[in-house]
């Protein structure tokens, strides 16, 4: 739904989009056009769409995940709301609406933060989930009690949903059918084991899921069961979505 934005807010959003066009972030791209619906995604600046590559060494690797930032008239005083348009199995993402739970979009929001920062934080959350603030109870439980089962189901969702074209998502009924049919067809997830992955993770996020920089990891990340101290926060063939 389109929201009226003040002229100064529109100017700020336009500047940020131009900056993201000039200074691209590895693994993150702003989307401008949806060929499935034949929609110009920049015709309504109250909804910003981006494509995030699934980080290496995670169950989301090789997936292309579309996210949406929804702004209202109080932006940037009030933070945008973040959603995964692409269905994902993740403790901090609502399984129904795709809403993202991360402190940057809540109590840690500052009006000086921009889309680049928000998108980098979301990608960090894909690397280091926070089961203590789970919106998906099943994913939050599995990631603590049976991490292998969590990783396998997250990979199954990636294989089913994160390799489709366009922004259209399957209906709830279609999703359930696809999940059931694919349970026995999806191979288990085995993370790559680098010699030392700590340097890569420290470059991506600090302990508050605040991005420092976002290079393409030179080595795959070793998946480890997150501890309670963790706080919230691909490369398949490209989709036909037009990007800046």
TrEMBL record:
SMART domains: UBCc (SM00212). Pfam families: UQ_con. Residues 167-185, 204-213 have a biased composition (Polar residues). GO terms for molecular function: ATP binding; ubiquitin conjugating enzyme activity. Residues 8-163 form the UBC core domain. Keywords: ATP-binding, Nucleotide-binding, Transferase, Ubl conjugation pathway. Residues 167-244 are annotated as: Disordered. It is an enzyme of class 2 (transferase). It comes from the Eukaryota. Its EC number is 2.3.2.23. Residues 186-195, 219-244 have a biased composition (Low complexity). The active site is at 101 (glycyl thioester intermediate). Belongs to the ubiquitin-conjugating enzyme family. This is E2 ubiquitin-conjugating enzyme.
């Amino acid at each position: 739904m389109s929201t009226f934005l003040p002229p100064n807010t529109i100017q700020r959003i336009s500047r940020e989009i131009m900056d993201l066009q000039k200074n691209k972030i590895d693994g993150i791209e702003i989307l401008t056009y949806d060929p499935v619906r034949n929609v110009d995604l920049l015709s309504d600046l109250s909804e910003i769409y981006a494509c995030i590559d699934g980080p290496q060494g995670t169950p989301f690797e090789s997936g292309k995940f579309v996210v949406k930032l929804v702004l209202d008239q109080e932006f940037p005083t009030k933070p945008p709301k973040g959603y995964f348009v692409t269905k994902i199995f993740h403790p901090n993402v609502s399984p129904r609406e795709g809403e993202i739970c991360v402190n940057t979009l809540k109590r840690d929001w500052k009006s000086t933060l921009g889309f680049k920062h928000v998108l980098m934080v979301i990608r960090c959350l894909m690397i280091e989930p926070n089961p203590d603030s789970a919106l998906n109870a099943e994913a939050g439980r599995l990631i603590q009690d049976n991490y292998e089962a969590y990783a396998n189901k997250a990979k199954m969702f990636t294989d089913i949903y994160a390799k489709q074209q366009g922004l259209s998502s399957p209906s709830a009924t279609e999703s359930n059918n696809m999940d059931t049919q694919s349970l026995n067809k999806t191979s288990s997830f085995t993370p790559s084991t680098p010699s030392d992955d700590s340097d890569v993770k420290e470059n991506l996020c600090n302990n508050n899921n605040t991005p420092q920089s976002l290079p393409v990891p030179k080595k795959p990340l070793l998946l480890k069961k997150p501890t309670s101290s963790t706080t919230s926060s691909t490369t398949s063939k490209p989709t036909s979505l037009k990007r800046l």
